[in-house]
Amino acid sequence: MIPTNLIKEWAIQTFPSATDLWTFRKQFTLQLSLAAFAEYVLHLTRLNPEMMYIHQDSGLMNVAYYRFDIDDSTGELDGNRPVPFRLTHNISELISWMGMSGPLTSSMIASARCLVTPNFKVQSILRAVLRDEMMMWHKK
């Protein structure tokens, strides 16, 4: 319904210098890669465009309402989605092919390496958060 280059054209008109545009796109790409990686690894609900708030001055991205994707019948995390994360045409046009094969992919790989590093203990934090989610599901 809207042109596929709408966000890209907005960014080009908003940022007068090439450096500002590049910085905005790079920061947004890194933020999007971390959100998509967290969505896949933590079995979160799908990230839709209306859930993203993009800061125009910095390219930082906030996600409005992520939840754990819990199956209503069994109460287990549902990780059987055919597509782990989704890029819309507008977002992929803004990021460009080079951004997807460069910073997006490499920052996802770097995030994955951080989780497998033995010095990084995220399990206890996730266990506490998941426990709360499971207790809320059980009360339903």
UniProtKB/TrEMBL annotation:
BP-aspect Gene Ontology terms: DNA repair; regulation of DNA-templated transcription
Domain PI3K/PI4K catalytic, residue spans: 1-140
Gene3D superfamilies according to UniProt: Phosphatidylinositol 3-/4-kinase, catalytic domain
GO cellular component term of the entry, any: nucleus
InterPro entries: DDR_Repair_Kinase, Kinase-like_dom_sf, PI3/4_kinase_cat_dom, PI3/4_kinase_cat_sf
Superkingdom per UniProt: Eukaryota
Protein's name in the database: PI3K/PI4K catalytic domain-containing protein
